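Entry for the shared binder. Reason: the reviewer on the internal report wants the predicted structure included alongside the sequence.
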Amino acid sequence: MIKIENFEIGQHRAPFVIAEMSGNHNQSLERALEIVEAAAKTGAHGLKIQTYTPDTMTLDLDEREFHISDPNSLWAGTSLYKLYGEAYTPWEWHKPIFDRARELGIIPFSTPFDDTAVGFLESLDVPCYKIASFENTDLPLIRRVAATGKPLIISTGMASIAELDDTVRAAREAGCKDLILLKCTSTYPATAENTNILTIPHLRELFGCEVGLSDHTMGIGVAVASVALGATVIEKHFTLNRADGGVDSTFSMEPTEMAALTVETERAWQALGKISYGPTEKEKKSLVFRRSLYIVEDVKAGEALTSKNLRAIRPGYGLPTKYLPELLGKKTNRDIGKGTAFEWNMIG
């Protein structure tokens, strides 16, 4: 069990649902605060932003590998520097965003991308940290974050088992005691068939930590299914309205979808229950609607039981139907009226 502020994360309770704002504020603090308010209303438990500047991410070049030329990319035609300039959350916005989240009962935290970001976030007393998939092999950054002693959430996108072993070792050796790995597919959006959530229980077994899902698929189906496989954290990108645009809007959830996610992932967790056979307490009232043996035609004392006067019907107050072959041909010891539940003491 891992505790982040007042929320306990573990298989003993419903998943910790994170609304990821990313760059969907579209460079408006007012919109950013509206996103916080909308996220809180959906029932999400955490609100995550990202802490970097274009200069801490890349170089101000629009050529060669610094230009996004992949025609299939959501961000094709721009440079990495320009993209991060459009997406980053100004550092002076962090405190008002965090303050609003806390006022509304949602837990705010961030993804740092370099040492300066960690130092800044420590000054704001964030309760936990997230490492993005693209940084999950940046061992110096992971050690720096782990050294804070706060819970650490790491997305596993693209990482091999060997790379994850390095990552987990680095985190634990640097002081991380509360580790959460998120299964992640680093495509935007991701497809269900490329998500491989069967990896979730395997990650838990391999690394002995809490495991969840950072989900870039559309809809809530993949996230709900992941809960059945043991996911205790669900992260989804979040926006007010996809039509408003924004760097991540295409694969972000709108408020009604996030609200459905929080409800349905909790239902999925509740449905796990325990290994159980036989009627539950709630089901016991339904036992009477099973089939059982009934006299279906008036029978005189001494008359033989046949398939015409003794049948398996509902409700379930008579003998179990498995005794029907044994009873056929036996003679009754009394007159029995139609609609009587059959008992052993009616023969012999």
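Summary line for the report: The CA atoms of residues 25 and 205 lie 38 Å apart.
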